[in-house]
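User: Please predict the structure of the protein below. I'd like the answer in structure-token form so I can feed it into my own downstream comparison script.

Assistant: Understood. Taking the following sequence of 145 residues as input:
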Amino acid sequence: MGEARRAASADAVVSVDALHLAPDLAAAGREVLRILRPSHRLVLTSWQPRTPEDAQLPSRLRIDWTTALRSVGFVDVQVESRAEWHELFTRVYRVALDLGSPGEDVAPTGLQDEARRHLPIAELVDRVVVTATRPDGGVAAGPAG
């Protein structure tokens, strides 16, 4: 998260396709909770498995966001998915692969590598937007650690 922020100093936290990559998801969630002002929200985009604990998926794609965020003290956790979001992210991958060899351009090369990894498992996950609120009143609830 870069430089340390004061507790209860952020009006909102936004994570675009990143929080699931944290080496310790619970610690990252607690840090977000710490810096949020009471009653303010986290908004994140990620993926959620269609079948919980699907062994075909890497652990970072098997996250049950409702459980994960509630376990560190967030409330009012909402997870939303729409079919068109799933279609859009898989279409981007297909277009990247259809471009052919990008030569020495690292950006399309990276996107093509990502597409090769994710397209085979794309039907096992849903693209999601998650919102969660830091509770009112003093120190947020949830396990310490």
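That's the full token string. Residues 11 and 30 are 16 Å apart (CA to CA).
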